[in-house]
Amino acid sequence: LDEKKALQERLEAILGSSFIQNAAEVKAVREGMSVQGYACLPTAHRATSRDQHLFVNGRPVRDKLLLGAVRGAYGDYLPRGRYPAVILFLNVPMCEVDVNVHPTKAEVRFSDAARVRGLVVVAIREALNGASQFTTSTLAPTALESFQPLVHAKSSAGFSDSGFLSEAPPFVRVSETENPAISFGRLGGAVAQVHETFIISQTPDGLLIVDQHAAHERIVYEQMKKDLKEGDMKRQILLIPEVVEMDEAAASCLLDHAQELEQLGLVVEAFGGAVLVREIPALLGQMEMKELLVDLAQELVAYEKSSALEDKILALCARMACHGSVRSGRKLNVDEMNTLLRQMEETQGSGQCNHGRPTYVEMSLSDLQKLFDRK
Questions:
Q1: DSSP state of 22
Q2: Which of 317, 304, 307, 247 shows the shortest CA–CA distance to 275?
Q3: pLDDT at 7 over 70
């Protein structure tokens, strides 16, 4: 076996047979240092950090700096309380690392800690961004197991004796194209919307089932982050400012953080015992204002003890994106669905929503054929 294949087999034995399938290869070199290994896709997160294996110059470590770099690299791709599985081999010139700072040599000290952290963060992020349109491959088998063949003695459910549908199901066909996947990208072309919540997309090799709200939520969130970074958060002035009645504690919390909210395009001020909303981020469009403000107040309380303003701002972005994205239950036409698919292809991290849940399940043609015993 070659070295790479041997490593993959060892990892499958330690981390599970599906680890390599659901991991991005990490490889980077910078200023005499290198890092290589594998980092799991965000949707393949785990309950503990025990599957994070780090090596420095061949020595296994549980170093706080490196563990923090892994956590920072995944950032907002993971749900709270969940951890990525990673295996990383970091090579650093011996003169730039002290291995004798811990009784069990589980921690090390780098002469340039910031440079090491930067290498690890960038390497993992580049690997994940390269695989950001993908979601864990274990979702398709799980979905397939939920399908059961239906056998009816007299007639098929939903059909009259004449063989025609007796009642229209909650399904909307949106495309008559012979093969809608041909002229589109990796995520294919929309062929239907089901229950006004899920988009069915045909790809050259199978199909996708896309959660329209979860997918658009990630798109809006990433656009908000981009606008915030570039200082170009566009606002929409409300023609009639909206007065939102809420309890005193929640209102006070929002008004105390009015400056942070204004950075995000949400302009609020006190109005008696209520909160007056004058401007909202243009990205969000129509929404239930009271629900948004109550949720933002709860998010601010959750991050009250955090000294990191960036964490607080990103948490608010995520909450606002959730309220400002396409909702479940909204009927979309074929152009809107295909626009969403194309935006997913261009958006980093589009394989999972802001809460770490997958945005779509992919089924190959062979998976579908197995459902009907065709293979």
A1: G
A2: 247
A3: yes
277 backbone dihedrals φ, ψ, rounded to 5°: -100, 120
d(CA 59, CA 94): 12
**DSSP sequence for 156-211:** -TTB-TTSSBSS--SEEE----S-TTTTS-TT-EEEEEETTTEEEEEETTEEEEEE
If one counts every other C-beta atom within 10 angstroms of the C-beta of residue 342, the result is 14
**Order of strands, edge to edge, in the sheet holding 360-364?**
171-173, 189-194, 198-203, 206-211, 360-364
Q: What's the pTM value of the predicted model, to 2 decimals? A: 0.73
**In this predicted structure, what is the pLDDT of residue 69?**
93
**In order of start, what are the domains of the chain with their CATH numbers?**
3-130 (3.30.230.10), 161-375 (3.30.1370.100)
* Sheet strands side by side (includes 274-281): 235-244, 274-281, 267-271
| Backbone phi and psi for residue 173, each to the nearest 5 degrees, phi listed first | -80, 135
CB burial of 46-75 (b: ≥16 within 10 Å; e: otherwise) equals beeeebbbbbbeeeebebebbbebbeebbe
Q: Across the chain, where does the E strand assignment appear?
A: 23-30, 33-40, 52-56, 59-61, 86-91, 97-98, 109-110, 171-173, 189-194, 198-203, 206-211, 235-244, 267-271, 274-281, 360-364
User: Where is pLDDT greater, at 96 or 374?
Assistant: 96
pLDDT tens per residue, range 83-140: 999 999 999 999 998 888 777 778 889 999 999 999 999 999 999 888 755 666 665 6
pLDDT value at position 142?
Answer: 62
Containing 6, the helix (H) or strand (E) segment is helix 3-15
Total Cβ atoms within 10 A of residue 165: 11
The C-alpha torsion from 22 through 204 and 212 to 230, rounded to 10°, is: 70
